[in-house]
Design brief:
By secondary structure, this protein is mainly alpha-helical. It contains four helices and no strands. It has helices at residues 2-5, 8-34, 37-81, 95-124.
Length: 125
Amino acid sequence: MISKKLSLNKVCIILATTILLLSVVMFSVLYILTKEMSVVFCSMAFCLLFLLCVTVFVILIRQKLTLFSEMLCCTLDEMMNGKIDISQVAEEENLFYKINHRLAFMRLCRKAKTALPVNELTYRS
């Protein structure tokens, strides 16, 4: 149930809040142990640089994931409309071939259902 309400944005916010709280605790411990602000500032700079790198990484991964899902949807739409035909190479079966095969089967079943009443009339008479 909680997984349905949990989005990527909420996970990022929870993770960022947790990291922020742990950083504050770490800075406090460093200051208590060393009594030097230079150590605290160096650790802050390191944490900020690390946070910047993680943010850039998440943004890049999110863009790639969005691009992939958009291209997948376009390919599936083209396959459903019959604009693209994925042929099978040798004995290899890939995901798009299986999807295309299932779509062709569904079209055939749909045609058979619409043609069935006409065939029933010819067989019954």
